[in-house]
# Entry
Amino acid sequence: MSVKLVVFDMAGTTVKDKNYVGLAFQQAMKAHGYEVSIEEINPMMGYEKPLAIKMMLEKHGNGVEEITETLISTIHEDFVSAMVHFYQTSEEVLPLPNVEDTFLQLKAQGIRIGLDTGFSRKIAEIIVDRLNWSDRIDMLVASDDVPNGRPFPDMIHKMMEALNIRDTQEVVKVGDTEVDINEGLNTGCKYSIGITTGAFTREELLKYRPTHVIDDISEVLTIISQ
# Structure
């Protein structure tokens, strides 16, 4: 069965990320009195960010009574503000190598391109605008567009419905984190591909049983042509 849709993650998969996201998350936590190491944060960055904040609070807080929706929302607002400023102003907002050429080659084959992310739509749209990707992709779904973020299949299901794709075996997922791989597996995608350009090494990604692990996004073209 031929592939009709490839769903890519953003930061660390298609968009350059020298740990900007993790550092902004760390600073937002620190501003509210929570010292969290970057080593703890990085594996969480594929999750929708309010959930990641809750997970960190459960680990570093003084009990469930202090973990309120207000606290989570306030920390998330600080994180979003930092990310919005970064993506609006930084010269480091760039595609990763071979991403745009891979998009073009997929388009030439009639394959749809989706982006999904743990970011809110506000941040995700700024990135797409800065990179001039509106005409290069077919659909963007952010974590706050659906009831459940990754690793649940909601974001991919939303894309499939909008693009009139009915069979998950016609969909491929590509991402650099555990939750990307599990999102693809939980959706039943034909391939759930891990990539080493972001938060996880090859060895770390292999623990989550992706169908493939790649070092360069152009390898997606070879996989789907098999």
Observations:
- The chain is about 45% helix and 10% strand.
- The domain at 20-89 is CATH 1.10.150 (DNA polymerase; domain 1).
- The first strand starts at residue 5 and ends at 8.
